[in-house]
Amino acid sequence: MSLTAVMGQQPPVTRCLAVASALLTLGCALDLLAPSTLLLSWQLVIYEMQIWRLVTCFLFFGPLGLPFVWNLCVLVHYCSSLEGISFQRKTADFLWMLLCGAGMLLLLTSFFNMYFVSSSLIDLMTYVWGRKNSSARMQVFFFTVRAPYLAWVIAGMSVLMGGGVQDHLLGIAVGHVYYFFEDIYPLLPTSKGFRLFRTPTLLKWVCNQTD
């Protein structure tokens, strides 16, 4: 099966994220883009109006190589699983989760020295996926992992492949904040049904989401 056919089977948000990430990496590999133009710099965003950095810092996984392939595969698998199953026919809710998570991660970059937040976004999604599929068991190489611990295992493997731990911990923390206020807190008697991350009606209309 061709790569085009595989990508064509993915849900729309997943497909857009994967294609954008692959194009940025390919552009850097062909020297059409410089990684320095993709990283997050609040000074350049604010004073030079280089707004695109707020997006590209989530999409660039580094140069072509094993870490890039690994991260892209994890992104496609768990992002598509979330979008296609946990958020089935709820594209607006899924997109709002990503936007809220990205906003929280951008806020955290003000306190931590972070230039790319792509791995944090993956950890956010894998954490939420694991919580929404808590009874699932995943085969990771030669051992089985319960879904709620999957994000921690993937983060550990990424660290073993040369990555840092800070980005992963921040992604897991943001994923937990989203999951708690979206799936746990509204069910508590004291919450009175309050949802901190309620999807805006306008976004539902744009995405043609009826519920």
UniProtKB/TrEMBL annotation:
Its main location: endoplasmic reticulum. The keyword rRNA processing does not apply. It comes from the Eukaryota. The chain crosses the membrane at residues 20-42, 54-78, 94-117, 138-162. GO terms for cellular component: endoplasmic reticulum membrane. One of its GO terms (biological process) is response to stress. Keywords: Endoplasmic reticulum, Membrane, Transmembrane, Transmembrane helix. Signal peptide: none annotated. It is a multi-pass membrane protein. It is found in: Endoplasmic reticulum membrane. Belongs to the derlin family. May be involved in the degradation of misfolded endoplasmic reticulum (ER) luminal proteins. PANTHER family: DER1-LIKE PROTEIN, DERLIN (PTHR11009). This is Derlin. It comes from Cladocopium goreaui. The lineage of its organism: Eukaryota, Sar, Alveolata, Dinophyceae, Suessiales.
